[in-house]
Structure formats: structure tokens, C-alpha cells
Design goal:
The chain is built from 16 helices and 16 strands. By secondary structure, the protein is of the alpha/beta class.
Length: 438
């Protein structure tokens, strides 16, 4: 009988009325890495947004004798940490010797704090695809802890450390779709098409926005080879009959030539699509808009962040001006593409007057046709980002335990320097298509 690894994507408590559930690519990438190297290990991918926690516990109870470890991918906020710890508590009741390992965005920046939780045996910091095959060797006592990239391991009241785990160009090798039913994740998105699936083809970001979690990769970037992306999209089309793709990369256009090749491939299946861009992607090559507009692109998602030049460049380090943002947004609209723009208010050092500039810009954007979507977040200091220490110096008291990070929210968490009335603005100026339909 094969050894078993169970990879868990804990349930996320989505914002009220949010209509989508996304493919759990974080665990599917790990599963692919394991299956590529460990033919004698069986992997189960378990998404608690689709299947119940109770069913997972039953699986663990039945298979406990052959489990090598159970891995959890967690992000900051959204309730996912609390969900993961609840599962862990039940697992330890079944068998206290089952190894529980955490990874994901939150662990990448707070590995030691995460490991302090009594329910957690190990954490893997950094790209899990690079570390997880070696981690299995460690658990099977084939190698020592220091040979596992990104490992922090509790053993006999000691913390054992692995080597550094830095994102590399070839870190992404694709996904394991073998045992997962993707039909649950295919949704009607009226801004794209009727059968849309999301897809992530890269990690990291080359830009330097001071508040963004992507900065934890230290401006490193890697992507799945375009041929594998094409194979995956062909699979979605042939097996699930999709007619739309939402690329959920931090920035789909980091490599413009790669993006163009993928876009050209989409036209073979007449697929509609949407993707994220940084304003500077468009600023440096506006001709890309004509190319994508003729290829089935229906929506561009873009973080604008602020309507004030000082905030944009001295605080956020966006390297773009409000005037340039307006020109970009107008060009996007002129090509008939829906702009979907996100904003953040409450940065350290940002004044209330500067926040009002953001809402004035949103009002101006609303005059475009098609009228853009706008989404306003409250600034939330993510550990490991350049603005984090500044936020702490100005009065932000960060959680001190893993579980306290579970419910922080960029929709509700106010920093001590932000006026409470800003909450009303955040709600009023968040204007999304599914909000309009209610």
C-alpha cells in the first residue's frame, strides 16, 4: 500500500454575496511536484470550499496508518487560518502522531510565529513546489532537515531549519488536475462569459508596490511555460467546455511576448478572457490594448490604489501619476474593454484629504463607457511588506498569534490613524457588477 499525503485548502469565508470559488492552485501545484518525483506516494487534494470538513476528518480517520503528513495552504485573513486549526485539532484527537505542516502566503512571511502554534509540527516557507518532495524524504528519514528548502520543524523541543527557499525562474511546473472535479469552479461571469474558469500561470511580481504581499517574493517572478498553459486551457475546453478564462496572476502582462502567445492561442477556441495588469504595463506599450481588444479580452483588472500623486509615488511606489492613470483607463474604455479597478485608502501617512482624492478619481472613472467596476479596500499592514514597519510605528498593533490573523480584513479593519467615517466611503464607492444586480 502506498504512502499517503493529504493536501488541504481550508474554507475561506468570502465576503457576503461573493459569487465565485476559485480553483485551489496552491495545493494542485504541490501535488504535481510530488507526483513528478514520488511515484510511490499517493496524493489527495482536498478543497474545503467544495467538500465538508467532516468528510475530510473521516478520510483521515480511515487512512491514518499510511499518512506521511497533512499539508495546509493558508493565507492571511478570510477565516482560513481558523478553519485549518479546527481541522488540526480534530486530527490530533484521532492520532497525535500525524504530522501537520503549514505553508502558503501567510507562512512565507511569518514562519516562526506560525510554528509556535501547538497543533502545528512543521512549516514550509517559500515556494512549496521546490521543497515538498525533499520534505517527504525528510519525514521518511532519508535526508536531514537542513536539506529541505524552507523547512522549520519542531522535534524534541528543538527547531530544525532547512536551507533558504527562494523563488526561482523554473519553480512553477504546472498543476495536478487528475483527481479533482473542476466543474464546481466554472462559473457564469457576466463580465467575461457564461462558463469561466480562473487560471494562475505565474508567481511573484517585478513591481515594488510597498503595501503588496507579492513583495514577499522580493520582486522575483516565475511562470509556467506557455506550452503547458496551452495544454491546460485545451484540457479545460475539451473536458469542461469552458468559454472563458480569468487569469488570476498578479500581473499577466509581466512578459508581454509570452502573454501575446497565450492570447493568440485563446482565439483558437474563441475564448473570452480577463486578466490583471499593472498600469505601467500599458504605459510602456499602449499598442497592447489594440491587440488584446481584438482577441476576446472583455475585462482588465488593475490596482490603481490612489487618486493622489503624492500617495501613489512617495508612499505606494506605484511609479505612475493620476494623469497617466486616467489616460490608461480612458484608452481601455475606448477599446470597449471593461476596466475593473481596485483602490486602497488608509495608508500610513495618507491624509483624509488625500483619501478624498481617491474617491474623486473614482467618480471621474465612472463617466467612462463602459462604466468601470471599482473596488475600495482599507489598508491592511501585511507582514513582510515595505510599509509594515511604518504602520507599526504609527500605532498598528499586529496580532501576536497565528489564530489572531485569521479574521483580519481589508474591508473592516481600521488603522488607528484612519477616521471611522471612511468605512461609509469604502462601501459607497465599491461598485461591482454583482453588487449592481442585487
Amino acid at each position: 500500500m502506498k504512502d499517503l499525503v493529504i493536501l488541504v485548502y481550508p474554507k475561506i469565508h468570502y465576503k457576503d454575496n461573493y459569487p465565485f470559488t476559485w480553483v485551489p492552485y496552491s495545493i494542485l501545484s504541490l501535488s504535481k511536484a510530488i507526483k513528478n518525483e514520488k511515484k510511490d506516494v499517493e496524493v489527495v487534494n482536498y478543497d474545503c470550499n467544495v467538500e465538508s470538513n467532516e468528510k475530510l476528518i473521516k478520510l483521515i480517520e480511515n487512512e491514518q496508518d499510511r499518512i506521511v503528513f497533512i499539508g495546509f495552504s493558508i493565507m492571511t485573513g478570510g477565516g482560513q487560518i481558523e478553519e485549518a486549526l479546527s481541522i488540526c485539532a480534530n486530527v490530533k484527537k484521532i492520532n497525535k502522531n500525524i504530522v501537520l505542516c503549514f505553508g502558503g502566503a501567510h507562512v512565507n512571511v511569518l514562519p516562526e510565529e506560525t510554528l509556535k502554534n501547538n497543533l502545528i509540527d512543521d512549516v514550509l516557507q517559500g515556494p512549496g513546489q521546490q521543497s515538498i518532495p525533499r520534505y517527504i524524504d525528510y519525514l521518511l528519514e532519508k535526508i536531514d532537515a537542513f536539506e529541505v528548502p524552507g523547512l522549520y520543524s519542531k522535534r524534541n523541543n528543538k527547531i530544525l531549519r532547512g536551507s533558504e527557499n527562494i523563488l526561482t525562474v523554473n519553480a512553477m511546473m504546472g498543476y495536478d488536475f487528475e483527481d479533482i472535479d473542476l466543474s464546481y469552479y466554472i462559473k457564469n461571469d457576466e463580465t467575461i462569459s457564461s462558463k469561466v474558469i480562473n487560471y494562475i500561470g505565474s508567481q511573484g511580481c517585478v513591481y515594488n508596490c510597498a503595501f503588496c504581499y507579492e513583495s514577499s517574493y522580493k520582486r522575483k517572478y516565475c511562470s509556467i511555460c506557455e506550452e503547458q498553459v496551452k495544454k491546460d486551457i485545451s484540457y479545460f475546453f475539451k473536458i469542461y467546455n469552458i468559454n472563458g478564462v480569468k487569469f488570476s496572476d498578479a500581473d499577466f502582462f509581466t512578459n508581454i511576448e509570452r502573454a501575446k502567445k497565450i492570447i493568440k492561442f485563446l482565439s483558437l477556441y474563441n475564448l473570452k478572457w480577463a486578466a490583471s495588469a499593472h498600469p505601467n504595463d500599458i504605459k510602456r506599450d499602449k499598442s497592447i490594448l489594440e491587440y488584446i481588444a481584438s482577441s476576446g479580452c472583455t475585462r482588465i483588472l488593475m490596482g490603481i490604489e490612489s487618486g493622489n500623486d503624492n500617495v501613489l509615488n512617495k508612499i505606494v511606489h506605484k511609479n505612475v501619476t493620476v494623469s497617466e492613470i486616467w489616460d490608461i483607463a480612458k484608452s481601455i474604455a475606448d477599446y470597449g474593454i471593461l476596466g475593473s479597478y481596485t483602490f486602497v485608502v488608509g495608508f500610513p501617512g495618507e491624509t483624509f484629504t488625500q483619501q478624498l482624492d481617491t474617491f474623486r478619481l473614482i467618480e471621474k472613472l465612472w463617466t467612462l463607457s463602459p462604466r468601470p467596476e471599482t473596488k475600495v479596500h482599507l489598508y491592511l499592514p501585511y507582514p513582510g511588506t515595505p510599509l509594515y514597519e511604518d504602520a507599526c510605528n504609527r500605532g498598528f498593533c499586529p496580532p501576536q498569534k497565528l489564530e489572531e490573523w485569521s479574521d483580519v480584513s481589508y474591508y473592516e479593519t481600521l488603522m488607528p490613524w484612519v477616521e471611522p467615517k471612511i468605512l461609509d466611503y469604502v462601501k459607497e464607492y465599491t461598485d461591482l457588477w454583482f453588487k449592481k444586480k442585487r
